[in-house]
C-alpha cells in the first residue's frame, strides 16, 4: 500500500494540538481543523512542484530542511509545543524555519495562499500564517522520515499526486495563485479565468454490448426505459416539492435547468448546516451558515485582501448558497431575498469593497441559451443590489454558461447541480 502523506500529516494534529492551537490563537477548534486540512495539501502541492522539476534551484533547500526535520520522532509533540502558549511566538525557531520553507515553496505568492486559507477556513490571517509556518516543516519532516535520501523524498512526493487531488478542498481556490497555474487542472474554482477540472475521477463513458452481435440488446432497452421512468419521477417530484414555475418543453431543451444555487440545490443530500451569526464591523449581525457566502466573504473583506492585487483577486469567487431562481428564468424567488439583504448589508459595512457577479450553468442544454440564462441571472442579482442602494459597488455582471463547469453533461444530477450557481468576486 502506498504511503499517504496527507492522512499521515493530518494525524499529527491530534485533539490536544488542535485544542492548544485554538486556545493560543483565539480561534474555533473546528476552524483550526478546517485550516489544517487545507494547508496540508497546499504544502504538499508546493513540495510536489519541486519534485516535479529537477532543475528547480529550491530543491537543495527542501532536501536540507527535510534532513534537518527528519530526525524528529515526536512531530505531534513539537506541534503542540509550537502552537500552545508562548510557543506560537514569531521568534520560535520552528516557525521561522517554516516561514523560510514557505518562501522556498511559494515565493512572493505565500501571502496570497495564506489569505485564501484564511478566507476558506474562517481563521484570522495571522492565525493562518502561524498554522502554515508550523505545518510546513512538520510535513517535510514526515516525508523525510518516510523516505531514504533526497532521491527517496522526491519519489515519495511524486507519488502523492492522487492523494493531493482527493484532499484539495473545493472551496480553496489555489488555482487563483499564478505560481500554481500549471496545476490548474487539479483545482475546482468557481470562476474565470482558469478552466476548472474536477479533482475527482471523471464519469466514465458506459460501454454497451454491440447489438449486431446479439445478446444483451434487450437489457439495454430495459435499462433505458427504467432510467426514463426515474427521470420523469425525479423531475415531477422536484416541481411538486419546490413549487417552481413549469418550464415550456422547448425551454428545457434549449438550456440547462439552472434552477438553484449549487449548494442550495444539493442541500437535501448534505448534513444539516450550522447556523451562525456573522458580525459586521459596525457590530450588527447577520443570520447565516458556517462556510456560507456571508461567513467567507466577511472574513475575506476583514483580511488584507487588497495586497493580493487585481490579477489574483479576479480569480477568487464566493458562491451564493441560498439563492434560488424560478425554473428557466432570471426571477429570484422570494425566499432568496434574505441573502440579497445580507449581501447588501455586507457591502454597506465595507463601502470600499467592489464586486463582480458571475452566473454559471452545467454542461447540459444549448450553450448559447446557457450563456444567456446565466447572464440574465447574474444581472438580476446586480439589479437587486442596485435597488437596495449598493449598485455603485457592483462593477458588473456576466454569464459564463457552462464554460467553467466541472462535470460532464452525463454526470449525475447531484454532481451537475454544483455547476449551477451565481458567485461574486471582490475586485477592490
From TrEMBL:
<feature type="domain" description="OmpA-like">
    <location>
        <begin position="312"/>
        <end position="428"/>
    </location>
</feature>
<dbReference type="GO" id="GO:0009279">
    <property type="term" value="C:cell outer membrane"/>
</dbReference>
<protein>
    <submittedName>
        <fullName>OmpA family protein</fullName>
    </submittedName>
</protein>
<keyword id="KW-0998">Cell outer membrane</keyword>
<keyword id="KW-1133">Transmembrane helix</keyword>
<dbReference type="InterPro" id="IPR006665">
    <property type="entry name" value="OmpA-like"/>
</dbReference>
<dbReference type="InterPro" id="IPR050330">
    <property type="entry name" value="Bact_OuterMem_StrucFunc"/>
</dbReference>
<keyword id="KW-0812">Transmembrane</keyword>
<keyword id="KW-0472">Membrane</keyword>
<dbReference type="InterPro" id="IPR009282">
    <property type="entry name" value="DUF937"/>
</dbReference>
<dbReference type="InterPro" id="IPR036737">
    <property type="entry name" value="OmpA-like_sf"/>
</dbReference>
<dbReference type="Pfam" id="PF00691">
    <property type="entry name" value="OmpA"/>
</dbReference>
<dbReference type="InterPro" id="IPR006664">
    <property type="entry name" value="OMP_bac"/>
</dbReference>
<dbReference type="Pfam" id="PF06078">
    <property type="entry name" value="DUF937"/>
</dbReference>
<feature type="transmembrane region" description="Helical">
    <location>
        <begin position="218"/>
        <end position="236"/>
    </location>
</feature>
Amino acid at each position: 500500500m502506498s504511503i499517504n502523506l496527507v492522512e499521515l500529516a493530518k494525524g499529527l494534529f491530534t485533539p490536544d494540538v488542535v485544542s492548544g492551537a485554538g486556545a493560543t490563537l483565539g480561534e474555533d477548534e473546528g476552524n483550526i481543523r478546517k485550516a489544517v486540512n487545507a494547508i496540508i495539501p497546499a504544502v504538499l502541492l508546493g513540495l510536489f512542484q519541486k519534485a516535479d522539476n529537477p532543475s528547480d534551484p529550491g530543491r537543495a533547500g527542501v532536501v536540507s530542511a527535510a534532513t534537518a526535520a527528519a530526525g524528529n520522532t515526536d512531530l505531534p509533540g513539537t506541534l503542540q509545543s509550537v502552537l500552545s502558549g508562548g510557543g506560537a511566538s514569531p521568534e520560535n525557531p520552528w516557525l521561522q524555519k517554516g516561514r523560510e520553507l514557505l518562501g522556498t515553496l511559494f515565493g512572493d505568492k505565500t501571502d496570497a495562499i495564506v489569505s485564501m486559507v484564511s478566507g476558506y477556513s474562517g481563521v484570522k490571517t495571522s492565525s493562518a500564517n502561524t498554522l502554515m509556518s508550523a505545518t510546513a516543516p512538520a510535513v517535510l519532516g514526515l516525508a523525510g522520515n518516510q523516505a531514504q535520501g533526497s532521491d527517496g523524498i522526491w519519489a515519495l512526493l511524486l507519488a502523492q499526486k492522487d492523494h493531493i487531488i482527493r484532499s484539495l478542498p473545493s472551496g480553496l481556490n489555489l488555482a487563483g495563485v499564478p505560481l500554481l497555474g500549471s496545476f490548474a487542472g487539479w483545482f475546482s474554482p468557481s470562476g474565470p479565468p482558469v478552466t476548472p477540472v474536477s479533482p475527482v475521477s471523471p464519469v466514465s463513458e458506459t460501454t454497451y454490448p454491440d447489438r449486431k452481435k446479439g445478446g444483451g440488446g434487450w437489457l439495454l432497452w430495459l435499462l433505458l426505459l427504467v432510467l426514463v421512468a426515474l427521470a420523469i419521477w425525479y423531475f415531477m417530484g422536484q416541481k411538486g416539492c419546490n413549487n417552481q414555475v413549469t418550464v415550456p418543453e422547448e425551454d428545457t431543451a434549449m438550456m440547462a435547468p439552472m434552477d438553484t444555487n449549487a449548494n442550495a440545490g444539493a442541500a437535501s443530500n448534505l448534513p444539516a448546516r450550522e447556523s451562525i451569526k456573522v458580525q459586521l464591523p459596525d457590530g450588527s449581525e447577520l443570520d447565516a451558515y458556517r462556510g456560507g457566502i456571508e461567513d467567507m466573504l466577511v472574513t475575506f473583506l476583514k483580511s488584507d485582501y487588497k495586497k493580493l492585487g487585481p490579477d489574483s483577486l479576479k480569480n477568487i469567487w464566493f458562491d451564493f448558497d441560498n439563492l434560488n431562481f424560478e425554473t428557466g428564468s432570471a426571477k429570484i424567488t422570494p425566499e432568496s431575498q434574505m441573502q440579497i439583504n445580507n449581501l447588501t448589508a455586507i457591502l454597506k459595512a465595507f463601502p470600499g469593497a467592489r464586486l463582480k457577479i458571475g452566473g454559471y450553468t452545467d454542461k447540459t442544454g444549448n450553450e448559447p441559451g446557457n450563456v444567456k440564462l446565466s447572464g440574465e441571472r447574474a444581472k438580476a442579482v446586480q439589479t437587486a443590489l442596485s435597488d437596495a442602494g449598493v449598485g455603485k459597488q457592483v462593477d458588473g455582471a456576466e454569464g459564463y454558461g457552462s464554460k467553467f463547469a466541472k462535470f460532464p453533461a452525463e454526470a449525475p444530477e447531484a454532481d451537475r447541480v454544483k455547476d449551477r450557481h451565481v458567485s461574486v468576486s471582490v475586485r477592490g
